[in-house]
Design goal:
With 699 residues, this protein is an alpha/beta fold. The model has no long low-confidence stretch (mean pLDDT 88).
Length: 699
Amino acid sequence: MNLNPNYRYIGLDFETTWLDFSKDEPIQIGIVEIDHTGKIIKEFSSLLKPTKDLSELKTIVWFITGISIDDIANAPTPQDILPQIQWFFTDNTILIGHNIRFDLEFLHKFFPELSYANNIDTYPLAQGMIHYQSSYALEVLVPGENAHNALQDTKNALTLFQKIIEKIENLQTKYPIVSHFTSQEIFSLAAYLPAKGPTLNNDIKDIPRLNKIMGANTQSQANESTIDLWQLENQKRYYLGNTNLKTFLERVAPNKNIILAFSNLQKLNIAKSMLNAMGIKNLGFLKDDQMIDYQKFESFLNKTTFTNEEILFICKYYSHLEQGLGLLDLNTKSDYQIYHFLKNKKEKTRYPIVLATHQWLFSYIQETTNEYQDYDILFFDAERRYKSYNLFLSRPQDMYYTLNFIETLLYKQFLEQETNAKTTKSNNQKIAAFYTSFQIFIGQLFMESKQLFTGNNAERIQSNPISTDSTFYKTNLIWKQIIDALPTLEDEVDPSDFETIKKQFDHIETLFNTVITIEKKMMNDDMYFVYSEHTQYTSWSEFIEIFPSTIYFFSNSDKAATNLFPNEQPKINIKTNKIWLYDKIVWYITNNSQTPQDYKQQSFFIASTRKEESKQLFESLYKSNLHNHYTIVAENITWWAGKNIFKLKNSAPKIIIGWYAFLLAIYAECISLDEIIVFNIRGNNEQSILDDIQRYANS
């Protein structure tokens, strides 16, 4: 790494009482200075005493940060350490951190005297330069001990920064054209990278292409146990509860041109893992393959001006190329906006086996084109068909999703004009005006929705149809104006884009004319709302009419359905136990061994749906010192699924508190468990959930 030596490079990280900078406080600070080669020059670390009552800081803070109340009881205050850290902050200091905007909020609030020249956030840089990660949390990108220690996290962020800079330097050397973009002033790292780009005298042509890596044709060979789908009856239900999923997949995998549809993404990933373990790699999915139209990409690269996000996208492309990756890893809003302009709509790949969720399948069936219309559909989790379809029919409408799509169309038209990709002249003022109108609409809708929540603590409420509710008088006026303006976009955007936005607006219109549920959510300390219809009920005959292809339904629990394997017995893959008291769970796990020093190497999943009870259970586990013998993860307290999955990928015995989707995600990652303890399950479908868990447990 060779950075511009005219700057001081300072890593910064805070550990805090929680994540809300408006009311939480720092409890530890870490500062590390490096020179332009990445060598550590000086470091500083200190615990900090918050002003709030220390009794409020319970075990969960220790769990997240490793810092206990005793550690910070006699720590200095931010003002106490100010003289020791002031010299790090000068008019040429560049602050570096992972998701540093969070840390800067605490810096500005608790150390307002300190100033600096600029900051570099490694989080968006990592999203651009490090691909196909389960999470972009720092401890996943730079694994090691002492994560969430402020000093160590600062060093890890600088290690990540150095890795990213070295990747860009390598791309500049291997693909000199990259320097042309990374040296542009708008790029966030341009001032710190010494390499300057070549002057381009000609257009950029002959871009090296990503080679889409197709799995070898590893379709399973038919044998005497293979299920011939032609022998099954179309639209009939079959019971599979007495055989495990892996066995059934082995029996149907030799069939070609089939879609396997599961009730959620976690189950799909379990099936994918099982099929991959069988050697079947050439799997498709009911979504875009993220292929690029290279003619458009050439015109994109030949633009005269670029944004920081566009340059990072270009770096991402060449990073994929350098690593031999065939499909782009898109993971930011900007990525998807750029790709929406670049995507290849003509190039399609047909796979012998296609995986889908129920929701993907229902959405796909609604599309006007269907390259898989001749495929047979194997619809798993048939007992959940009504729930899946009703959820699809009454799916929530996030107004910000629609706003982002309109913004994407505006950006796409801007690129079309910049690159002369559209022969007919378009007027982007129409889309811009429409975008502004929809912003105003959302603001008015949210303002009037907020009135319904005044004076109560409800998270969701039922509302009369918005179209006839006087509370939403102004919203309805603006909505009528937007609907009247919608046809003016038809000549401004691609037909497929207009069809997409029209479907979204038809959905909003439907919502406004029915009894709906309004759910209150928070984003960046701002309240916003999501709207959905009440659950719709569909008869069996109405349900099966939506499928244009041959379809077979498979149930885990419907024993009244035809049994495909009447002579087989169900295999119990994992032990299940019901314990409903905190202390008894602790006693049960503790007495799983002869002595506290001789714990058996077993891993437990504690099924808990209630967050507050999960917290209390978590407290009990820590007070009993079980964290000294087990890796403890409380997924339904922190909700950081990607980070938690990464943390569980070790051989240590584990205690995991979480719920259904997280348990299935653990199975999909082939993380072994020995026992499930049912602590609490919300609702009256406990047995069907437990049957479902057994069904998808690893063999």
